[in-house]
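User: Please run a holo structure prediction.
Assistant: Happy to. Please share the sequence and the ligand.
User: Here you go; the ligand is nicotinamide-adenine-dinucleotide.
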Amino acid sequence: MNKPVELKLDIVPVWINGKAVLPAGRMGEVYNPATGQITKRVPYCNEAVIDQAVQAAAAAYPEWRDASILRRARVMQKFLQLMQAQQKDIARLITEEHGKTLPDAMGSVQRGIEVIEFACGIPQLLKGEYSENVGTAVDTHTLRQPVGVCVGITPFNFPAMVPLWMFPMAIACGNSFVLKPSEKVPSASIRMAQLLQEAGLPDGVFNVVHGDKVAVDALLHHPLVNAVSFVGSTPIAKYIYETCASNSKRVQALGGAKNHAVVLPDADLEFAADALIGAAYGSAGERCMAISAVVAVGDAADPLLALLQRKASAIKIGPGDRDGVEMGPLISAQHRDKVAAFIAQGKKEGAKLVLDGSTPPLQEGYFLGATLFDHVKPEMEIYKNEIFGPVLVVLRAATLEAAIAIVNANPYGNGTAIFTESGGAARRFENEVQVGMVGINVPIPVPVAFYSFGGWKNSLFGDLHVHGMEGVKFYTRTKAVTTRWPHQDTPAPGLHMPTLG
Ligand code: NAD
């Protein structure tokens, strides 16, 4: 494997108060995973830089909170146009830093852009409730007011889409925002900050900082931060949730996943196999909604395995910017080695290795081939862990009931899918499965922007999902106002507890 060689490097700045800034201090490296070479450097912010960003957001907040709702919507409309025009450039940045193929990166930016489209409707979304005569001549109405300085901490696998789940909603609701994207893929966030400024967003309302645990901890403990949205692995999500709770901050922390697809014998197996190949190996399995476990029910197992083996062997692997490539590299050498170690573990545990992708198919970069295991048991490490690579494990179950029991016993609950022609079976699955997002003959059931995205169990710590109406709720506080206008024929309130009859 080639050792990373330093080329002429750009430094990705932070973005504070409308300006690109290069803070002094620790730096990290950004790699092109298709070549294994360092392409950029990125500052790892210390507490002082985080404080500057939060102070900028806090200073910009009052004016933005009071900006008319139509002005906020119009900034989103302009940002939407700019993002549409820049979609390909941002997708190229993602392919360069993450490794996923260009069409896949384009699709992910599109899903993020759809959240901006939803945020453009903020005047309608923020309407409150009004009840006349809750008591005699007494009215009640509710307001949705912004929460203040909001923070987003995001993972490497969706450099634009996951931040876009958060900040368009937060900003449209009247909050200011500090984003800490993954230090592995920092450039798309800076590009989006520039476009927000071009769209007319006042300086300080959106800020971007970079770094690792030091930067994250400074955000979690900063007294001026009111709300934190996190997406990443389960151990860190739990840490974020607990730290925010003990610091009295509003928090939603989305974690990792082990997403199951249940395939019934009556399913169109050719269709199901095609769907599973895309869902398991797309983006080299580095999607939180990737299908990483299949539960094949009854007679579905043998023909499904044959189809999966044939189709997985035919996947074209290579650099994500090459035409015709279907699967790119993994994010880092360390992660590639971790995934390869899981493949070795699966063999040792006695699972049947149907397709072995552990030998890197290309000399340079962080590639692995597609791997397929059969006869996997729930107690095996390759089943219990989120591998987050191009490894699909197949379990076998005798009945739908047994398949649902397997899915429900798993500690994760992000997404799941069933493949069947039976409406009754699908309805039962939808009703009984303990998972936040369900697909019926849809392998990756990521809800569109006007619905909300989020899992259950170890895939989400917190109450509210992201974007859709749950996003509006997360980024606003409800205020209920009860009003009476005294006049001569209603008695003044006495000392007793008011009852508005
Ligand atoms: P990660 O948890 O390592 O990192 C996520 C963020 O947390 C990054 O910004 C990182 O800098 C920061 N971080 C890392 N270690 C930290 C620490 N010790 N203390 C404080 N902050 C820390 O996740 P990742 O590897 O970037 O992303 C992959 C993971 O994200 C997978 O588990 C995947 O399932 C999950 N994910 C979940 C969803 C979802 O919607 N549930 C979506 C995308 C990704």
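The mean pLDDT is 96.
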